[in-house]
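Something for you to look into today, if you have time. What I am after is a single protein written out in full by you. I want to see for myself how the chain folds. Could you add the entry underneath, on a fresh line?
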Amino acid sequence: MGQTAFLTSEARLEVLEEAFPEERIETILRELGRQSVRVRKLPATMMVYYIIALGLFVSVGCREVLRRLLESSRWVWPSEVKLSTETAITKARKRLGYEVIERLYREIAKPIAARRSPGAFFRSWRVVSLDGSTLEVADSDANEKAFGRPGASRGKSAYPQIRFVTLLENGTHVLFGAVMDAFHVGEITLAMKALGRLKRGMLCLADRNFFGYALWKQALTTRSALLWRIKKNLILPRLREHNDGSFESMIYPSLKDRRHKRNGIGVRVIEYHIHGFLDRYRLVTSILDPSKAPAEELALLYANRWTIETSLGEIKEYLPKRKMVRCRRGSRGSDRALIRARTQRRPPKAPSTGFFSPLRTIVPTGVACETNSENRRSASGPEEVIPAQSNAR
């Protein structure tokens, strides 16, 4: 992530108000009917900032989070500003609900990279990545009923878990368009909702477990460019070869459609391997014109998909001391909502070029790409799989 001037210990009320304007929060509260109807020690607007602060001060208790949030105000008015009890805080959170935080996240967490931001753009496209993961929640009966637990070698895991899929702007590490649900809901199902945040002018990277006819077709409706890895055992005919080594092919929803050559979608396939490794890497892209995006440049670009892997790793392992979402009651909304956007005022430094050093030696017919093997998923979502066909070379 690189060093930044922002520290969580400095997250006072005035700092959060700068990132999340009070006027916008009050508008959302009115539209959802959650504004305070009488004067309270914990008004609805304050509770929105408090819930955001819960995601920053993850290693301390709920009442301590409120004390840190109001520290500057209590220093000026020590007798007027009183800390509420934990019971009062719990009741105020119930009154607010999760819809306000989810709505605020949808409106605030958006791509923010400027053209000069390192790693944010590839030619004319804004680079984003798609991936999913899981987060542990507090061990309670309500959470287990709402989200479920993953299996373990002996029984079940220690904590219930949620599954989420999100988009990430590579240049700034801003997570946007996140969708969460119970653990048993597959990543493909969640990705169908998350892809709605793609827009024209974006270039979306995704790993091989997301590729399928239905999801690819849905992503194309956003008019964004796509660059996804596919499984190496998927046979695609070489319909037209290009000078850069890529070739055009067609994908179909079923074998019957393939036989009748209907409902096909044209794609461009890039195949290569890295010197010293036996694995063959295969990418498909919706950019059919090789002059707009040569195969070698796209393969080098795909290595940047690991930006989302490292960002999710920072959220789950390195940033918090407590590695679970706080909520004790099951809720399908985004209480925490992964709302880390815009608290980081400057984009992180560009990744070290040392990451690409083993990729510089390539075979004559191939280009460089990621050297890490893809992580396997246990998601049970109904992934579409393109049926195999005879090789038509």
